[in-house]
Amino acid sequence: ANGDLSLALGILCPISVANALTQWGDATQQSKYLPDFCGDRPPLATIAVNEPVPLFNPHQLATRAVQRGNDWVLNGTKALVPLANRSEILLVAAQTAQGPAVFIVEGGTKGLSFVDDRGMGLRATGLCRVTLEDVVVPAGAKLGTADFDYRQFIDYGTIGWCALATGTAQAALDYLVPYVNERVAFGEPISHRQAVAFMIANIGIELESMRLLTWRAASRAEQGLDFHRDAALARVLCAERGMEIGTNAVQLLGGHGFTKEHPAERWYRDLRAVGIQYNGLHL
User: In terms of CB atoms within 10 Å, which end of the chain has fewer, N or C?
Assistant: First the structure.
């Protein structure tokens, strides 16, 4: 994401699906789907968690999955799903009688429909709103077995969004430092102005805070330790400071920040997306 958060998200979506199948998929699910990810043409795949409701909480889903015989029937709407209308595999989060779960839904399944869900950012990923209307999947489509940890599934995604925000914020700082040193106003570089210098310094401080909290959460996850609190703390910081850094990047470039001639306006729009992903996590 050091340069383009939207493209990075599009690249990471299929990898995230493969990782989820590797970590939680049962033997049948792994043998069916994972070999294609190692082939010459790996499938496009995505994860659908967000829903178009106020104060969305990924642990309280409006999308429902009801068991009917040997099948599951899914109904609901997912929002801002990257690559959705082109994906061959979708991991869809839905509420069951036992709590939230994730289901493997193949692209082209009857009852699955898509419309563009374009927002101010993440335009390179082709965001879609996904409607599931009596989508029937077999019992074996429920991800994992008794060892599946839905909270951990969400927390891994949280760390991913924090990493994306950190990379984009780093790109902004790398662009801003030479700009303010070379941009001359009133006979001197604008970096000589304290207001500008302090703003750049604050971006550097906030960026390191974002990076360290993200690393700590990722480190605990890699060691097999509980990382829920660390992921939540990182998300709050990266969402708030990421949006602030995007705003300040536009501000420091002045009129150039508003034009597409410079990348700051894209970073601003993309970093806003981090603030709305998986809203409602609990510390």
Answer: C
Bridge partners for 95 per DSSP = 64, 100
Q: Render 194-249 in DSSP notation, one character per residue.
A: HHHHHHHHHHHHHHHHHHHHHHHHHHHHHTT---HHHHHHHHHHHHHHHHHHHHHH
Reported as a single tens digit per residue, the pLDDT across 182-211 is 999 889 999 999 999 999 999 999 999 999
Whether the predicted model's global pTM rises above the 0.85 cut: yes
Helix (H, G, I), strand (E, B) or coil at 111: coil
Distance between CA atoms of 82 and 123, rounded to whole angstroms?
9
The torsion defined by the Cα of 104, 106, 109 and 114, in degrees rounded to 10, comes to 100
Neighbouring C-beta atoms of residue 210, cutoff 10 Å: 25
Residue the block writes with tokens 């106003």: 185
